[in-house]
Write a structure and sequence with these properties.
The structure holds two protein chains of two kinds.
Chain A: E1 3-13, E2 19-29, E3 33-37, H1 44-52, E4 59-64, E5 72-75, H2 87-96, H3 102-115, H4 131-143, E6 149-153, H5 161-178, E7 181-186, H6 189-195, E8 198-203, E9 208-214, H7 223-226, H8 229-251
Parallel strand pairs in A: 3-7, 3-8, 5-6, 6-7
Antiparallel strand pairs in A: 1-2, 1-4, 8-9
Helix pairs in contact in A: 2-3, 2-4, 3-4, 6-8
Chain B: E1 5-6, E2 9-10, H1 18-37, H2 48-57, H3 59-93, H4 95-110, H5 113-123, H6 126-151, H7 155-163, H8 168-206, H9 215-224, H10 228-257
Antiparallel strand pairs in B: 1-2
The chains are: A alpha/beta, B mainly alpha.
Chain lengths: 260, 269
């Protein structure tokens, strides 16, 4: 597998002095489904945002296979739709910002809505949709430019389990159909194992990657995989890695609670 | 089980507006009755019927004054909208402009217009002074609401726009301005009423010295002549104008925000 992005020595210190990510080294393979798994505040979202170009790293380098960052589709934890625009116009946005007219963009928009199963809802406004449907619109918007890299920041965390499972399946189907490389931030062991071809386990404060676990089962996967012994084994292994990461975090020297 | 209730009020066969309209009519009828039964002379308190008669009888005089007041109010409101919107956009684009000039807007706002009016009457002719007063009071709510609205864009959406390389102009036009619309319309509702109040107050301040012929001038003039019914008639016209302005902007809000903004939708029950 060819490498899409090479991250070397990436660190991020925020304005208030918090070291969010420290010395991150990571190769992202073309076409992989890579999950960033870790407890809250471990810098996994920060890593994803630096990958998207939403914030610059304080130090370190990100090298891209094509020389420059490819077109990126980004999905936030909230659907982040414009409430005054219809579903169609929300999905149009990335193309509109590139000065593509509504008529010229219509086919791409309809295809993107079709991919997430919302063709019938093009004229509806976001507030008339359920949480899961809003998230589908958000995904359609990210896919409308057919980006080679799709980044999702805990997109399904606020949804109920039934909706989440359905969207997990749909995301895998999309990924398989489009061949997109996916970066996916989650704090759920089960979700990461179900979705990913590889999981990067983060420890917190400062955030670094402490384990990289391959999930070699072929995509797409289904309910059968979710109930299989292999799935359970992977979950156990990833859970163990996560626990180790969190213990490291407890043992690691923190900022002193009492002034020395 | 009792009958279904909403907000503690029984829901019946009557539409929502029946009750408030009935109570309003009852209040007017009560006023009429009190004046007639107690034989209160019209120079103390005219009956509603007499006020109505006066409006009809003095219509040539009053309509001219109404027109003047309307012209001043809407000119001031138009200037306030144009100025408020322009300045708000300027403020949103350059923080240093906001920091430098917002204090001036605050000073204009917190200084009572009635205190500025005599000074303006010294520098300007009466009509222009009245217009400027109305503008000053209408301007600030439109400015401050729009500034707030333009600054309230969803941070994630702003990041999304940056991710797709949106220009400043695109961000303003497609994200900040539509997002500020509910705030702007809220400012309009306040500013519209204030423009009328500003016009009336300034004209009262101008008093007999001014050559103004607006409704406030008619009230002052009728007061000197102890023509109380005409004072009430002018007052009614001012109230109706204020109500009309408020209704107009409420309907405008409903039309522009109806489909997407929570303020314009009833909850499903």
């Amino acid at each position: 597998m060819s490498v899409l992005a090479t991250l070397r020595g990436i660190s991020k210190t925020f304005g208030n002095g918090t070291l969010a990510v420290d010395g991150l080294n990571l190769d992202i393979g073309d076409g992989e489904f890579l999950s960033f798994l870790g407890p809250s505040g471990c810098g996994k979202s920060t890593a994803l945002r630096m990958l998207a170009g939403l914030m610059p790293p304080t130090s370190g380098s990100i090298d891209w296979a094509g020389g420059a960052r490819p077109q990126v589709g980004f999905v936030f934890q909230e659907p982040t739709l414009m409430p005054w625009a219809s579903v169609f116009d929300n999905v149009w946005l990335p193309l509109r910002l590139r000065h593509i007219s509504r008529a010229d963009a219509a086919r791409s928009i309809e295809e993107a809505l079709d991919l997430v199963g919302l063709s019938a809802f093009a004229k509806v406004y976001p507030r008339e949709l359920s949480g899961g449907m809003k998230m589908r619109v958000s995904i359609a918007r990210a896919l409308v430019t057919r980006p080679p890299l799709l980044l999702l920041d805990e997109p399904f965390a606020a949804l109920d389990e039934i909706t989440r499972f359905k969207l997990n399946d749909d995301l895998l189907a999309l990924k398989t159909e489009l061949g997109t490389t996916v970066g996916f931030v989650t704090h759920s062991v089960f979700e990461s194992v179900y979705l990913s071809t590889r999981i990067a386990v983060f420890s917190s404060r400062p955030g670094r990657i402490v384990a990289s676990i391959d999930i070699p089962e072929p995509l797409p996967r289904n309910e059968e995989f979710r109930l299989s012994a292999i799935y359970a084994d992977h979950c156990r292994a990833v859970s163990a890695a996560l626990h180790t990461a969190m213990e490291m975090n407890i043992d690691a020297p923190q900022q002193p609670a009492v002034p020395r | 089980m009792s009958e279904p209730r909403t907000n503690g009020r029984p829901t019946g066969a009557f539409p929502d507006f029946v009750l408030p309209v009935a109570i309003f009519i009852a209040a007017i009828a009560g006023w009429e009755a009190i004046v007639r039964i107690n034989k209160i002379p019209p120079y103390l308190l005219p009956a509603p019927s007499l006020i109505g008669e006066t409006i009809v009888k003095d219509w040539p005089l009053l309509s001219g004054s109404l027109w003047v007041t309307l012209k001043i109010t809407f000119s001031a409101l138009f200037l306030a909208i144009a100025g408020g919107l322009f300045l708000a956009i300027l403020f949103s684009q350059w923080k240093w402009v906001e920091r430098s000039f917002f204090p001036f807007a605050v000073i204009l706002q917190v200084t009572p217009v009635i205190a500025i009016a005599p000074l303006l009457l010294v520098y300007l002719d009466a009509q222009t002074a009245v217009l400027v007063c109305a503008f000053i009071v209408a301007f600030f709510p439109i400015l401050s609401n729009t500034v707030l609205g333009l600054a309230s864009a969803d941070h994630n959406l702003v990041e999304l726009y940056e991710l797709y390389g949106a220009s400043r102009w695109q961000q303003l036009r497609l994200l900040r301005l539509p997002g500020a619309l509910p705030y702007f319309l809220g400012g309009l509702k306040i500013g519209g009423g204030l423009a009328l109040i500003g016009a009336i107050v300034a004209e009262i301040a101008a008093g007999s010295a001014g050559q103004g012929t607006g409704l406030a001038f008619r009230i002052a003039e009728a007061g000197y002549r102890l023509n109380i019914p005409r004072m009430f008639a002018a007052l009614v016209l001012i109230s109706v104008t204020g109500i009309a302005i408020f209704l107009f902007f409420s309907i405008l809000s409903h039309v522009l925000l109806g489909r997407w903004h929570d303020s314009q939708r009833s909850r499903e029950t």
